[in-house]
Design brief:
The chain has 535 residues and is of the alpha+beta class. It is built from ten helices and 14 strands. Residues 317-533 form the Histidine kinase domain.
Length: 535
């Protein structure tokens, strides 16, 4: 899993929110659910108590075979029954009220005071007004088919929430005196109560809003408190630590560092101060050692420069002085080769001539490299056709290649003019060609390629030799470095000056030189030369 990115403050605040918000949210949500359950439980208990009270009243009236009330009293008004029993008395005419009639009168009293409403509903009522509605039918069905003792639901009447509660009414012996078609112990109907509960819903909504406000305030307070503590106890000391670390990186080493906030941070500050003091001591000691070493290196550098200058002067002088006697020796050797006719002496003379050429080549290379490094060489730049120059070199080097059973191939791409020192560029191409002939196997091919690049020419010499190891491709252009050749028993060839001279000459012309593998086997030596503007 990828590590979370962001500042430490962001991570702390995110962690606090992810932990505190769900936890407090669950607590307050559960509190809201509990309060709602308690509210509805109180409503149900209130309906149960009312139902029990009304049923007890009905039971008393039933056990008394009815109650006689004066017709002209307020309690007897508006509650006429399906039938009436009248009893004349000295105080006036009394009317007998049955349990059903008493229940209706009580419901009217309650309804007038806007408290609650209740009524009787029977399966086969004698009074048509006691026919059950849809809710009461569902309740009676529930009582008849199961052992349920109550049935209730929440309904909406004219925009007001009403809690409808119903309890079963059972037939007993006192009921049979009037209701002949009932069977004792069966459900004859139900008593339904309608309680207005809009105030309960409003109270629950207000309570939920208060809970939400309290939860939000508590969450904000908790997050802010934890944020303050984290910032004061952790983030501020870390910011101070960052400032001190940046100061140390700039060379400022405070001795006393006080973070504040906690003992742990103060101990960190003491440890950091001790480390700062040690770093300052180490820096001072290191600067002193560096100064001493710099002075020693400066003296050593001056000595090396002096030695290098003396070496260059010595090599230049020696190579110059050696050329005169070598010329004399070469003349005497040519005379002997013309005058001596004995075959054995001719063999010795050829060996001497071969080694003399190598010695002359070595002296010439030393003379050239010392002059180039001393910046004493005179460059003669002028326009030259590189195609013509390469063609002439191929023609000159062909006899040497044929002696080794090699073929030289060059397909001229047409005139390509560059501003060069012709003699020095010829020296580069000849040197690369000589190496290609030397390391290519008999019957092989050495090819020359001229390419026009973006503002430059590329001259390539391709051989089929053993190749140059990748780790030696840069070093071979340094002085006195030779790479072993598997084609020559692993023995290095030459003095290690030829490619170094080529590199110096090419760089003096503003070009570059490198070597890479030949896909056909062997190596490809490439160097570049700036093209003329008109080309």
């Amino acid at each position: 899993m990828r590590a979370l990115r962001g500042s430490l403050l962001f991570k702390f605040v995110s962690a606090i929110i992810c932990i505190v918000v769900p936890l407090l949210g669950i607590i307050f949500l559960w509190q809201g659910v509990v309060e709602e359950r308690q509210a509805w439980s109180q409503v149900v208990n209130q309906a149960r108590l009312l139902t029990r009270q009304i049923i007890l009243t009905r039971q008393w009236v039933s056990d008394s075979q009815g109650v006689f009330l004066r017709q002209d009293t307020p309690g007897a008004q508006g509650g006429g029954g399906f039938y009436s029993d009248l009893l004349p008395t000295e105080r006036g005419v009394l009317q007998r009220f049955t349990p059903s009639m008493i229940t209706k009168q009580l419901s009217l009293y309650s309804y007038r005071q806007n408290l609650y409403r209740f009524r009787l509903a029977g399966i086969a009522p004698m009074n048509p007004e006691n026919r059950p509605d849809d809710f009461e039918l569902a309740a009676i069905k529930s009582f008849s088919q199961s052992e349920n003792k109550e049935y209730y639901t929440l309904a909406d009447h004219d925009g007001e929430a009403i809690f409808q509660y119903s309890a079963p009414l059972y037939v007993d012996e006192t009921c049979l005196s009037c209701h002949k078609n009932y069977t004792s112990g069966t459900v004859s109907g139900c008593l339904s109560i309608h309680l207005p509960v809009q105030h309960v819903l409003d109270s629950l909504s207000s309570s939920k809003l208060q809970l939400f406000s309290s939860a939000l305030a508590l969450i904000v307070l908790t997050v802010l408190t934890l944020y303050f503590l984290v910032r004061h106890l952790v983030l501020n000391p870390l910011s101070t630590l960052e400032t001190v670390a940046e100061g140390i990186s700039r060379g400022q080493f405070p001795e006393r560092i006080h973070f504040g906030g906690s003992d742990e941070m103060n101990r960190v500050g003491q440890a950091l101060g001790s480390m700062s003091a040690k770093l300052r001591e180490g820096r001072d000691r290191l600067e002193e050692e560096v100064q001493n070493a710099t002075s020693e290196l400066a003296l050593a550098n001056e000595e090396l420069k002096t030695l290098d200058r003396l070496k260059s002067e010595f090599l230049a002088t020696m190579s110059h002085e050696l050329r005169s006697p070598l010329t004399s020796i070469r003349g005497g050797l040519d005379y002997l080769r013309r005058t001596e006719t004995a075959s054995d002496r001719q063999d010795y003379l050829q060996i001497m001539d071969k080694n003399l050429r190598r010695l002359v080549h070595l002296v010439t290379d030393i003379f050239d490299i010392t002059r180039i490094e001393a910046d004493k060489i005179e460059w003669n730049f002028g326009p030259a056709d590189m195609s013509e120059l390469v063609g002439e070199i191929v023609e000159i080097m062909t006899p040497l290649a044929e002696e080794r059973e090699l073929r030289l191939r060059f397909l001229s791409p047409g005139p390509m003019t560059a501003m060069v020192d012709v003699e020095r560029i010829e020296q580069v191409i000849v040197n690369l060609t000589d190496n290609a002939i030397k390391y290519s196997p008999g019957g092989g091919l050495v090819s020359f390629v001229l390419l026009r690049g973006e503002g430059e020419f590329k001259i390539q010499v391709r051989d089929q030799g053993p190749g140059i190891p990748a780790e030696a491709r840069e070093a071979i252009f340094k002085k006195f470095h030779t790479a072993p050749s598997s084609g020559h028993s692993g023995k290095p060839g030459g003095t290690g000056l030829g490619l170094a001279i080529c590199s110096q000459i090419v760089r003096a012309h503003g070009g570059r030189i490198w070597v890479e593998d030949n896909p056909e086997g062997g190596s490809i030596f490439t160097f570049t030369l700036p093209a003329r503007d008109e080309d």
